[in-house]
UniProtKB/TrEMBL annotation, chains A, B:
<dbReference type="InterPro" id="IPR016167">
    <property type="entry name" value="FAD-bd_PCMH_sub1"/>
</dbReference>
<dbReference type="InterPro" id="IPR025650">
    <property type="entry name" value="Alkyl-DHAP_Synthase"/>
</dbReference>
<feature type="domain" description="FAD-binding PCMH-type">
    <location>
        <begin position="99"/>
        <end position="281"/>
    </location>
</feature>
<keyword id="KW-0560">Oxidoreductase</keyword>
<dbReference type="Pfam" id="PF01565">
    <property type="entry name" value="FAD_binding_4"/>
</dbReference>
<comment type="similarity">
    <text>Belongs to the FAD-binding oxidoreductase/transferase type 4 family.</text>
</comment>
<dbReference type="InterPro" id="IPR016164">
    <property type="entry name" value="FAD-linked_Oxase-like_C"/>
</dbReference>
<dbReference type="InterPro" id="IPR036318">
    <property type="entry name" value="FAD-bd_PCMH-like_sf"/>
</dbReference>
<keyword id="KW-0274">FAD</keyword>
<dbReference type="InterPro" id="IPR006094">
    <property type="entry name" value="Oxid_FAD_bind_N"/>
</dbReference>
<dbReference type="Pfam" id="PF02913">
    <property type="entry name" value="FAD-oxidase_C"/>
</dbReference>
<dbReference type="InterPro" id="IPR004113">
    <property type="entry name" value="FAD-bd_oxidored_4_C"/>
</dbReference>
<keyword id="KW-0285">Flavoprotein</keyword>
<dbReference type="InterPro" id="IPR016169">
    <property type="entry name" value="FAD-bd_PCMH_sub2"/>
</dbReference>
<dbReference type="InterPro" id="IPR016166">
    <property type="entry name" value="FAD-bd_PCMH"/>
</dbReference>
<protein>
    <submittedName>
        <fullName>FAD-binding oxidoreductase</fullName>
    </submittedName>
</protein>
Length: 536, 536
């Protein structure tokens, strides 16, 4: 397979941005940026220019691969620039300000396990750091190299390994290579009437291997919230050897081998393929939304729903700010978006019970008269469109010098109300202190559990021109601190990467830290795999 | 808390058997044993006598605890004998033949974390093996010591740590000490209207810590089949220090710390307490059974149910032999036992859809007219009673010189029919070769998944008098071999212990084996924790 340096999306042939979210043809134009900026007092009058790779100082690679591996590796500046960072606000603004993270020396695109193993062998011998790279949509500094402890940095791009290799229609499973982007793998499953149905916001720009390595959250709001449960077996190539777990529907033979690599973020090995549990496409769907004048009562409604066995596929609660921004409400009410889906039986009864439950806690809303598209359902569609557009708008606001980012967490229900209040207050205060401007801090619940929920926060404020990274780091430090004091996880489904290390180190139990360090030494004896992520 | 040497059940005040299953007052008497033996050609004419502790040669302990720990430790022969083994057939017959496993030198009953840590410190300094012990119901050699690499053996009985320490009614969770037996913890939850609803066959005789350490299977046939999903946070005391994971409903911060200790079987640390996710008691229940003249079609029916989203709480398929033995059918048909339960809404509709699905695959059965106890429901009750009585009957048959044991596994659906056929044929052949008698090999499916199922096999055959252990070991070797060739797990929910090591070592992926060994060295540097389990 030839090495392609330009970032053209393999499925759509649309150009991918090297510095910002998604497709360049979906980026807001300058006029739109100005329009958005006007909503945030204190932002720039004109957008920052779109950064160009040619303006970066990209040196010669500090290492040369052996001839046997040369065909897998490129030193092309575009390729290297587009593998330098993920897609957090912090990454985008660094690119806009011409101060990206360390550019990798080389980008490798292996096409088979053996090539991955060979690259790891070579890197281990030459003290080359290896940063596994899927779709590059990390928002936690998971795909960049920091520091200078290694002689060179190799970005290991898995997207040339993107095939569905085998399908078991009896047991509804498929063996899929880790580098397949969401649409690429779904496209190969569709002819078989099957689907993985894992739809993170980054679906178009993230890979199966990335989802597994970061324990990604999908669109299911309940029960199977993370990709973890859909992994039947993993193949992992480590510097100390490769291995594949058996395809098993369930097992009690020792600690789960797969659960050690799920969430390992490329620090213990490279996930190269996985047998995944699939589903039939849903034949029955329904959705509705309810308004709440009181956010606390809406929280109670969501808790009641999460503690029922109704298992809504969608159960998203938008606070008034979030509902306003997405167009789901305009009167200051909170909005609960409910959705049910099934390949087995109609779901109208489940929605009816759910609506009754929500109304008992003050929810206001009609049952939809039919399937999607009814008036009661408008908030659902409005919210979905806004959801997919959000990262593009974030980048547009970044061009206006704004500081706009999200972070998510999870905590038990007893802590949720105080946690949300505290985040609003303390993160807002930190933003004000850092910028002199009032910040918008909105909240939605994205995934809910019988014992707790996952609040997702959005912060937007005008930055100090040129100092946006420092402003965000101050705000993020305040967020980390408030989450820690409320015993809320540093991340529900965005992974740890390098940006979440301070919070992660505080919450990880000491015996598990010892176990992880010992495992790292055993599997990655030269310490080349994604250095700085999860562990030092 | 005083050390009690006699094994009186704390909840019921009924006497516990030191050598066999459960309560001694529930053991079949001699006449019943003879009656059962008559059903298996070749068994003894009269039952083996009930073994007495006084007949064992129990030496003086090879080690003396320091005065500071003496009050936690006993060398009482009854206590030591009852902690020498688990409750597998292999254990029972060894006791009956007067050849139990190595008797531990001491039994300790700590009442607090610090005492556990102190005992581990002392044991580490003096090369004393520590075998964590909950209810002692292991059927895989998980609670005995084998070999002589250690100076002495301490059985660490956790059942004095049996309190529910804290209840969060908002998030429906409880902090429970690991030594609480099933009825002991449910009794403390009941006044709060909450339940863990984890009902393994050993419910009365196993502890929360044992369930967590072995990834026990509960009564839920679908979705939450193992205890794993109900663990919110674990506290683990290791020789290298203690730690507690945060109470989180979900998290994506690195690999799950809890999943490393779930299934660690006392080799990495001692689980001393856990926050567990609870449920309301179900308000709606219904069940029904269907008969199938064709087992293969019954398998298809179960697969269809498992791949639906109906989530039956009970979905057990009994093959003709199993159905006959339990009284669920007498005409050679297979029986599918279905049950639904909910605290939210009536479940009759879900049962109706399920029955339709099963009938479409040849199932014959009426919908129940009302709740439990209707004629259509008789098979359910018959099977449940037989289920709880089974281990007692096994011991009665053991006294007649029979070899009677179960083993369970799991595999993907594409492998299930051939796997079940192969186990029947090969295990039957091994039993015939070892004994000269035709064996009964029955099968039921206990837990089912969209991608596979967990078959549970029962073997019964007359043994060679005095050589029953060797006979069983031959049969088990054949079972291990056939499971391995069919890539079926060595255990779905009975754990690995020492008995399943040959199968476990074959199926564990090499990188995970390296990780586990490294973790063991880091957390248990003196190698005192449950030596021989999972690892050498």
């Amino acid at each position: 397979m030839p090495v392609t340096a330009t970032a053209i999306d393999p499925g759509t042939s649309r150009p991918r941005s090297w510095w910002g979210w998604g497709y360049t043809d979906a980026h807001p134009d300058d006029a739109e940026c100005v329009e958005m900026g006007a909503l945030l007092p204190g932002t720039l009058a004109r957008p920052l220019p779109i950064p160009r790779v040619a303006d970066l100082s990209i040196g010669r690679p500090g290492v040369t691969p052996p001839p046997s591996l040369a065909h897998l590796v490129t030193a092309d500046p575009e390729a290297r620039a587009s593998h330098a960072m993920g897609k957090a606000y912090r990454d985008v603004i660094r690119a806009l300000r011409g101060r990206p993270g360390r550019i990798p020396d080389l980008v490798a695109r292996p096409t088979a396990d053996q090539e991955v193993a060979d690259l790891l062998d070579w890197a281990g011998e030459h003290a080359v750091a290896v940063v596994p790279f899927g779709g590059g949509s990390s928002v936690v500094g998971g795909v960049e190299y920091r520091g200078d402890a290694h002689r060179a940095v190799l970005s290991l791009d898995l997207t040339s390994m993107d095939r569905v290799l085998e399908i078991d229609t009896v047991g509804r499973s498929a063996l899929i290579q880790a580098g397949a982007l969401g649409p690429v793998l779904e496209g190969q499953l569709r002819p078989h009437g099957l689907t993985l149905r894992h739809f993170p916001q980054s679906f178009e720009f993230s890979t199966l291997g990335g989802w597994l390595a970061t324990r990604a959250g999908g669109h299911y709001a309940t029960v199977h919230t993370h990709i973890d449960d859909f992994a039947q077996s993993l193949r992992v190539v480590t510097p100390a050897g490769a291995g594949t777990s058996w395809r098993l529907p369930g097992s009690g033979a020792g600690p789960s081998p797969d659960r050690l690599f799920l969430g390992s973020e490329g620090t213990l090995g490279v996930i190269t393929e996985a047998w995944m549990r699939l589903q039939e496409r849903p034949r029955h769907k329904t959705s509705a939304s309810l308004a709440f004048t009181d956010f606390r009562r809406a929280l109670d409604a969501v808790r009641a729903l999460a503690q029922s066995d109704l298992a809504p596929a969608n159960c998203r609660l938008l606070d008034p700010g979030e509902a306003l921004l997405s167009g789901a409400s305009h009167d200051g009410s909170s909005v609960l978006v409910l959705g049910f889906e099934s390949a087995t039986a109609p779901v109208d009864d489940r929605l009816a019970v759910a609506l009754d439950l929500a109304r008992a806690h003050g929810g206001i809303g009609e049952a939809p008269q039919a399937d999607r598209g009814t008036p009661a359902d408008e908030a659902v569609g409005a919210w979905r469109s806004a959801f997919l557009r959000m990262p593009y708008l974030r980048d547009g606001l970044a061009r206006m010098g704004a500081v706009v980012e999200t972070f998510e967490t999870a905590a038990t229900w007893d802590r949720i109300p105080a946690l949300i209040d505290a985040v609003r207050a303390e993160v807002g205060a930190a933003a004000l202190k850092a910028t002199g401007h009032e910040a918008t801090v909105n909240c939605r619940l994205t995934h809910v559990y019988p014992d707790g929920a996952a609040p997702y926060f959005t912060v937007a404020v005008a930055g100090r021109p040129g100092d946006e990274v420092a402003v965000w780091d101050d705000i993020k430090a305040a967020a980390t601190d408030v989450l820690h004091r409320h015993r809320a996880t540093i991340t529900h489904h965005h992974a740890v990467g390098r940006d979440h290390r301070p919070g992660y180190d505080l919450q990880r139990p000491a015996p598990f830290a010892l176990a992880l360090r010992a495992t790292k030494s055993a599997l990655d004896p030269h310490g080349i795999l994604n250095p700085g992520v999860l562990l030092d």
